[in-house]
UniProtKB/TrEMBL annotation:
<protein>
    <submittedName>
        <fullName>3-deoxy-7-phosphoheptulonate synthase</fullName>
        <ecNumber>2.5.1.54</ecNumber>
    </submittedName>
</protein>
<dbReference type="GO" id="GO:0003849">
    <property type="term" value="F:3-deoxy-7-phosphoheptulonate synthase activity"/>
</dbReference>
<dbReference type="GO" id="GO:0016832">
    <property type="term" value="F:aldehyde-lyase activity"/>
</dbReference>
<feature type="domain" description="DAHP synthetase I/KDSA">
    <location>
        <begin position="12"/>
        <end position="258"/>
    </location>
</feature>
<keyword id="KW-0808">Transferase</keyword>
<dbReference type="GO" id="GO:0009073">
    <property type="term" value="P:aromatic amino acid family biosynthetic process"/>
</dbReference>
Length: 264
């Protein structure tokens, strides 16, 4: 079902008037984690003002260590839904377990499966039973075939609304947090009809590289970008402040991107 062989035309996912996978670029921006109502409201305002369409933010955070901040939970879903509605943005948030799929889908327009959960088959199966669009992140050590098979689980369950997200893979390089595999973008387009989104924030882990790799992703054919932005990155509650753009950088990035491709 994920293969282009059996579905030659690109899949376009339409969410409340925003078409993902068509000729326009979708921009998802926001903090790594939802922290407070004030934080997410202000960032939503800035994403909208810059020309973005989707507000990102994690209420449930998959942290490497059990003692790190794990996200604010269901309250965060409510804060983000409210900010999205107020500022006219779609919302995307990560869901980590099958039990939380329904409550996340109640509050968000798009559900994100994180890199660490790409092969959480129970989660993928559950996501196949609903119609809410899913942004599936590539596992950081997964092949294209494994990635497409993970998407297949969701599609096979009956949910056709899947986007693929390249977010960097693990290589021998340590200067960057991950290695953004730009080649994945044209390869996934060749093999599959599903929209392809690029995540240069996690793909590089370094703010100063995000802008360039966003532009490179668009040149490689990405249908959209997911970018971390924070009003106070140095004091963000996850370690992802170092890869988060400042609001003025985010606004400038969108201005530049508009010269490369029309935004949604
Ligand atoms: C995130 O989007 O904040 C995140 C945790 O992403 P990934 O699963 O790609 O690490
Ligand atoms: Mn993050």
């Amino acid at each position: 079902l994920a293969s282009r062989d059996f579905h030659p035309d690109n899949t376009v996912i339409n969410i409340k008037g925003v078409s993902i996978g068509g000729s326009e670029l979708v921009i998802m921006g926001g903090p790594c984690a939802v922290e407070s109502p004030e934080q997410i409201d202000e960032i939503a305002r800035l994403v909208k003002a810059a020309g973005g369409q989707v507000l990102r933010g994690g209420a449930f955070k998959p942290r490497t260590g059990p003692y790190s901040f794990q996200g604010v939970g269901v309250e965060g879903l409510e804060m983000m839904a409210e900010a999205g509605k107020k500022h006219g943005l779609l919302t995307i948030t990560e869901v980590m377990t099958p039990e939380y799929v329904d409550v996340c889908a109640e509050h968000a327009d798009i559900l994100q499966v994180g890199t660490r959960n790409m092969q959480n088959f129970d989660l993928l199966r559950k996501l196949g039973t609903i119609q809410t669009p899913v942004l599936l992140k590539r596992g950081f050590s997964s092949t294209y075939d494994e990635f497409l098979n993970a998407a297949e689980y969701i599609l096979a369950g009956g949910n056709p609304n899947v986007m693929l997200c390249e977010r960097g893979i693990r290589t021998f390089e340590t200067y960057t947090r991950n290695t953004l595999d730009l080649t994945a973008i044209p390869v996934l387009h060749q093999l599959s009809h599903l929209p392809v989104i690029s995540d240069p924030s996690h793909g590089t882990g370094r703010r100063e590289l995000v802008e360039t790799m966003c532009k490179a992703s668009v040149a490689a054919g990405a249908d959209g970008l997911i970018v971390e932005m924070h009003t106070d990155p140095d004091n963000s509650m996850t370690g992802d402040g170092v890869q988060s753009l400042f609001p003025d950088q985010f606004a400038k990035l969108l201005q530049d991107l508009e010269k490369l491709a029309p935004l949604c």
